[in-house]
Amino acid sequence: MTDALVPDTTRIGLLARIEAKPEHAHEVEELLTTALPLAREEAGTTFWFGLRLGPTTFGIFDTFGTEENRTAHLQGRIAAALMDNAPKLLVEDPEILPVEVLAAKLS
Question: Which residues pair with 97 in a beta bridge?
Answer without folding.
Answer: 15
